[in-house]
Amino acid sequence: MNLKTNIFQNEQFLLDTIAKEQKLKTNVPLIISIDEVGRGCVAGPVLSCVSLWTLKGYDPSFKTKSQKWVSYIDDSKKLSEKKRTQCFDLILNDYDYNLSSIPFSKLNPNNLNHLVPSNTKLHYKSDLFINKKNSDHLNDFECIYFSLGEASSQEVDEFNIWNALQLAIARALTNLYYFFKSSSESNIYPNLNQAIILMDGKHFIKVPKEFEKNIQATVTQADGLFISVGFSSIIAKVYRDTFMIYQDSLYPSFGFSGHKGYGTPKHLNIIQNIGICPLHRKSFLTNYYSN
Q: Which CATH superfamily is domain 9-251 in?
């Protein structure tokens, strides 16, 4: 992460660029940043984190946080486990959460029929942000809500990994939507459909119908370019790793605390020798065990 004059300059530059390209009449400073973890694993859930960001002071009902964790933020894969955990702990402390109180959903929506494409989809290469000129106006953003969504290993087998990932994201987005819909003090809900949905990569997702009007923007290497996406990547990564470490006590033969469900040679060798457990994705392991 290249922290210059303003650490959120890429977020502001994205909003400015989209407003200009799409000829938006109003440039609402709302970004929903999404990242996921566990897509390449052979065991355990796929997990997403969505975080809603806006300018400091935009929502007067929100108490501004210290954001002491900002200097830690980067693509979670580039950080050591120790630094990821330190950042995760600072974030939870800032938001008065603990591991069990983070907003989380693994139930609704329960199938793909509830998901629709977004009306507007935009893709940007990382070069646009690495080599950009600074925005005309630079502002500090803050995360005012984040939520986790999960799809189980059984859902990965049933729907395939891409569809399961979309379910996980949809569950987190639905949590976010109903949180602000039920908040009488926040001014976010009336403008939520104008938030830019920002994701890493090149692929667009189907979303709950409440978000079909939201512009989707994908940026290659977004988790290393945007503080907001890096934030989501760290929350998702540490939460899932912690979950998989706990599974070690339930299924001690598989070594989940070490590989976190990834298909390491040692993990695959164990599967070949003793079979699988309920955490494993059968569709990923057809060459390694017999039904």
A: Ribonuclease H-like superfamily/Ribonuclease H (3.30.420.10)
Q: Where are the domains of the chain?
A: 9-251
Confidence of residue 185 (pLDDT cuts 50, 70, 90): confident
> What pLDDT, on a 0 to 100 scale, did the predictor assign at position 5?
43
Question: Which amino acid makes up residue 172?
Answer: A
The residue with greater pLDDT, 75 or 24, is: 24
Low-confidence winner among 19-28, 90-99, 134-143, 146-155 (lowest mean pLDDT): 134-143
What string of DSSP letters covers the chain? ----S-TTHHHHHHHHHHHHHTT-S----EEEEEEEE-TT-SBS-EEEEEEEEEETTSSTTSPPP--TTGGG-S-GGGS-HHHHHHHHHHHHHHTT--TTTS-EESSSS-SGGGEEE-S-EEEE-THHHHSPPPPSS---EEEEEEEEEEE-HHHHHHH-HHHHHHHHHHHHHHHHHHHHHT-SS-S-GGGGGGSEEEEESS---EEEGGGTTSPEEEETTHHHH-HHHHHHHHHHHHHHHHHHHHHHHHSTTS-HHHHTT---HHHHHHHHHH---TTB-GGG-TTT---
pTM: predicted TM-score of the whole model, two decimal places = 0.94
Residue 136 has pLDDT above 70, yes or no: no
Q: In angstroms, how far is CA 240 from the centroid of its own chain?
A: 12
Q: How far apart are CA 229 and CA 134, in angstroms?
A: 19
